[in-house]
Predict the structure.
Amino acid sequence: MTAPIAPTQGYAFAYLDEQTKRMIRRAILKAVAIPGHQVPFASRDMPMPYGWGTGGIQVTAAILGPSDVLKVIDQGADDTTNAVSIRAFFRKTAGVATTTRTAEATVIQTRHRIPETPLRAGQTLVYQVPIPEPLRFLEPRETETRVMHALADYGLMHVKLYEDIAEHGHIAKTYAYPVRVEGRYVMDPSPIPKFDNPKMHMSPALQLFGAGREKRIYALPPFTKVESLDFDDHPFEPTRFDAPCALCGATDGYLDEVVTDDRGGRMFVCSDTDHCETRREAGHRGALLAAEDPAGGATARPEIAEDLP
Amino acid sequence: MSPASAFAAVEIAPGFRDPVLESQATFRAVLDALAEPGRERDVFGIDAAPAPLPPVMAAVIAMLADFETPVWRDDGLARAEIDAWLAFHTGAPLVADPAAAAFALVGDATRMPSFAAFGQGTDVDPSTSTTLILAVDGFGAGRRFRLAGPGIAASRDFAVGGAPADLARRLGENRALCPRGVDLILAGPTSVVGLPRTTRIEEIG
């Protein structure tokens, strides 16, 4: 964990001006009051392109305070370009403490994963959302999808899932798997793998979703019922993996496939880098590490530079 | 009346000492309060706010309101010094029609209008409903309620003094409209409690 520093002079605290923060804060409060409902907001241009988390970064900027500890992950990893840049951005404009450890963070901004370490009360998970409308690819007109939500008319979504079963024998959606919130709104959980869907249900943490290009904010308060859509005879099943992580041996995490050579060699490793590194620090070793160094024990956690020049 | 005397007629009291960080702290308290209904969250009020505007209510409205959000206030709060304070610190338009308000300030919760008088939102966009900020005597004593719904693991008991006698009935009717309906922020002397439209409420004596 890095200690808080003085924010760089010349920026508003956490970059956004106060009127923008008020507007976003009002949208967040209404989103929390109506779980799963997409609240429109006047999304601003941010110093990064759409698709890089402009929605998540605006939500984070509106909630962040000097005593927060920020973690940012991109597909589970703390050390990817998007995660490093966003962490450095808030380090510069808000001076907040940052961490890569899930347990230490108070605010976690995420692109497309929920950490493996169970979240606790008092933590806030901010999702970057590309397309907030779960019905978008079934009905392209925003005017129509809004009425469908108003009427809780989700028959089309069930037809889509049924067609998957008719065509493939199972529901073929593996990410951005639609959920129903408190029996009312159907919600896009952002493109997290369906492996992560069960973690949203009755989570003690507050979950906020920001879509910058599409100008929508939605939320799940702690302890909210979140069901993945399914059928009685085709119940929802999270993704399962056949092999443990090659580095830490974990069998409880979501794994990324990594191609290791041009002869078909590949390995599966934890997508959540914090989970993997924490396990390796504790002495857990997967097949690859054990083969490379049969005598080795615990491995030290790599350092990540937090303050960019 | 000359401009100088008009200026002297209403002296405007200060708002937040540090608007950026105090707004953020107040927001997080209100966010946590609405995310976990019935749980008390501390707020540093604006003590300098003109009476009878309660300091915690002053902090919440100063954090939330601006030129985009019409504000309604009940008769007890519709005073020249308070109107001038709201106009100066928030720039919010003050409205007489509660249905047009984004935020409603209720100084005397025992005599407030029916929730139906306020903006209910629409089926397509229920987020346009009014958020009511109610002054209450305090939490921990008074009428006791059992709450359930989003933000509450099983059930949560809370007690509030100075709330309307028919609060449970009003909130029950409000919840029947869900996802339309108003949301409540109860402002005590040093803290807030949130009661969003989704919360199920039962009076337990």
Observations:
- The mean pLDDT of chain A is 95.
- Chain A touches chain B at residues 12-13, 18-19, 21-23, 25-35, 37, 39-40, 62-66, 146-147, 149-151, 182, 184-185, 202, 204, 206, 219-225 (CB under 8 Å).
- The CA atoms of residues 15 and 118 of chain A lie 30 Å apart.
- The two ends of chain A are 19 Å apart (CA to CA).
